[in-house]
Amino acid sequence: MKIAVALTGMLACAAAFTWPYPAQFDYKNTTISAEDIHIVAKNSKSSLLESAISRYTAIISKERFTPPADYKVERPKPAAKLGKLLIEIESDSEELSMSTDESYTLDIPAGGDGTLKAQTVFGALRGLETFSQLLPTLQGLRVVRGTPLHIEDRPVLAHRGLSLDTARNYYPIADLKRTLDAMSYNKMNVLHWHIVDGQSWPVESKTYPELQKNGAYATNMRYSYQDVRDIIQYGKERGIRIIPEFDMPGHTYIVGQSFPKLMSCLDKQPDWDQYAAEPPSGQLNIAKDEAADFAVGLIDEYAKLFPDEVFHLGGDEVNRKCWEEDPDVKAYLKAHANATVETLLSAFYTKVHGAVEGQGKIGMSWEETLFHSEYAPPKDTLIQTWIDEQSIPKTVAKGYRSIASPASSYYLDCGHGAWLANFDGNSWCDPFKSWMHVYNFDPWANVTRAAERELIVGAEVALWSEQSDAVTLDKYLWPRAAAMAEVAWLGKTDADGHVRTTEEVVQRLHDQRFRMVGRGIGAEPLQPLWCARNPGHCLLP
Amino acid sequence: MKLSAIIGLLAAAPAALAVWPIPQTFEQGSSNTQAHWINIQTHGATSGIVNRAIERYRTIINNEKFLAPVDYNRGVLATSGTFGGLTVSVESTNEQLTLDTDESYTLDVPVTGQATLKAKTPFGAVRGLETFSQLVSANGATKAIVNTPVHIEDAPKFVHRGLLFDTARNFYSLASIFRTLDAMAYNKMNVLHWHIVDAQSWPVESKTYPELQKNGAYGPDMTYSYNDVQRVIAYARDRGIRVIPEFDVPGHTYIVGQAHPELMSCLNKQPGWDQYAAEPPSGQLNIAKPESVAFTNKLIDEYAKLFPDEVFHIGGDEVNRQCWEEDPDVKAYLSAHPGETVESLLASWYAQVHAHLDSTGKSAYTWEETLFKSNFTPSPNTIMQVWLEHASVEKATAQGYRVVSSNYDSYYLDCGHGAWLPNFDGNSWCDPFKSWMHVYNYDVTANITDPEQLKLIMGTEVAAWSEQIDETVIDPRLWPRAAAMAETAWSGKTDASGHVRTTDEVASRLHEQRFRMVARGISAEPMQPLWCARNPGMCNLP
User: Fold this and answer.
1) Looking at CA atoms only, how far is residue B468 from chain A in angstroms?
2) Predicted complex: ipTM over 0.90
3) Cα–Cα distances in Å, from A278 out to A54, A166, A198, A298, A378?
């Protein structure tokens, strides 16, 4: 009965059909027409706001979105129409950081001008996205339903991210920009750019130009400084921070194409599995000062290219045997009786994390740096957990901030079969993570103390690209990343403490999927269209 | 050691192994032939099919600047001969496309001078042109055919190399169907099993019952007119692809009830639909009503004319008994006829419908339940589509029926994508995902030794049920996995020496086929990091 009531409620007023749903949404039942869109900044000279206004004016004017459940709705006969949307922001500051205020208030009366108020230009961006989702076209007429309506909105998590791997396979700039567009439609605000890995080094380096020369897949599969700055600017215009990851000391085979002397266990075949999580094998040689110096040189270079305050150092899937068998490591350990592979690794981490601090930045690191090494990262380090959902409570119990990327819920590449060509088996992280499974994950599970819950600062889905490239990018990401985005923006519960269920939200996600397709994102369908049109008729009894 | 020997060969002359599916006989030399422009002409009698195929492939080849991923740094090859055009000749210009159509061809490309393609039929020429197109690679500013002279003799192992396309759960535009037919032709597939209607929608026009489409299509822009269907059939035929329509009865017919509720049982039971149907919405033709037979037979009359193929799929899957046991009309009928049961009603319903289909001169094609899970005995010329388990292949051929296998555990390409009922955070019913290796490793003849039974295996068919697919994502769901089946259906499981081909042996060619398809506008999935595609044998499990 409860579901039926909830569904009826949503059907009665599809004004509620925004994704993610706002923190507070009050609406009545008057429909007004909104054929002409005039968005005006009342008091701002921000060029970011100006470009956002023209962008959303174009999106809305072009868009003729009809929610699937409204396919037979009668043409509304509104008595009033929307006037302008007036935007007021408190500050013209265009600084985008973890502490940027993204809150906004949106009012649309039952006729006349609407108002969007925000502390920052980035709050205004979020409000514009919400506004764009309040404008369905019903039998040819663009309207706002549910007026007068009042929205007060702000995110629960400061970091709502997507990790994209552009090294296993390459993604052209146009695909990255389309992904940033799609993220903004879901109020996501961090692109974690896993820009290099064992297989390729697409990004330009001015310090070590040979890395790209020998490491990019091809001359047309590269990111120049100009490309990177273009992406950073494109992200910023959508309120999205770009955090680069330079994964070390593992996942660095490709460095060995230019600097084999810095490497251990380079390209072991055919038993690569003894030395690396996947082929090709190779790790920076922790017995060599030159390897740490090289890493510090990279950090110094890229900390300048990427302006974000956070810098991801990787630190995942480090293989001990790779070093235990390395001649230089063996010689070093023989000459230094108290040294071990673990102390060498800690010393390496001390140097590279120190270099990040030296650049005035916050380190971000995969959970192994904290849990599977003897090194203690600086206390402000962001720990990205992936191995175990219980790593989140363990991280915050140690006083570190946590970004949740559990493979069991947030790895969007899983469930697609093995990818080693002689192995007819499943992916290591089977099964596929359905949108329901993504939505049901609770980043705060098993964390009860308020001080520890506050340390959970982010959630991030990941697309590892062993089996993905530009051809399949959209369908891997969407709408499943959107499922995470709502939880990260809105939290798991209503104001009354009720945990939102997938059946309660499915109709809004259908809307969001079709809206995204309309905006040029190749998002997957959730169900037969019949189900999207007949809410509540495709539930498991 | 064996593996490294193969890798060595690949590194030396990779493009020579490039054809997918691999031809039955493939001899090659060690020269390279330069081609500035690909001329193709006919010799002797010809046909519209051949002429249009030549035009198509001339465009594809001359526009294509394709290099296999392993050849990324091969540089400009030295050539010792010049391509002098391809001459295509066919023995017969008969353009009939049937189960008996000969698709064999012989292709010779000398080091220098004129290449020849000879075939018995226009459709053999179509297959040979596809093979020829895969022999041509970019070479600097021109093109090359490597490892000439090339001599190929080729013919398919199985006559039915199919793809099931479900246009009812979600709609597909004609453009996406045409694109899929193109992709099938690139893989020498020859049957589009068009699952054109199902419970959720009825997109196809009916002149007998116009209300079916009027009330059943998702929207006026989501329909197939007679003209649309005829265009699909003609487009497919040009590519040697037969179009078999499926009108699934008596289950999966909720949408009929939107126009003719009087013909239905258990229409749209909610929320307990699972007692009455495999998926929502529920509804089956009412087997107690003679009108449901008359309705079905008129549909057969109409669509047997619209679809010229000699095979007609009549469905018969996932029939639910409770739906009828609780139906008032069925109950009334059974109480008036003490000797009758739901099973006898269903058997007699099938008997009337199949007899009518047989009378059109076509072969019935049906899901295996009609044979194994009903009391009806289909006529001997019926083709059984197996899906529930591989053992059904043996069982059906033992009874003398022809069989196409769509064993779900290997060939259902929609599996492994999570549940699709939004209140269920679980896996798909047919988990896990079927990787291309898993598709490739299926052997439709496994456990069957009787030569008479082996002869009854017509082939294989992958299926893409569309609960979670529409045209936004259809390409990556199909390709390259359907291509994996296509090779085993065309080339068979073994090479001439009897060796069963393994996935690590064929991966490099499939990479090449995947990138070729992408270059031709098919959004096929990548199989691995590009690094692996470029470094054969380096991404194997030790």
Assistant:
1) 5
2) yes
3) 46, 16, 9, 24, 29
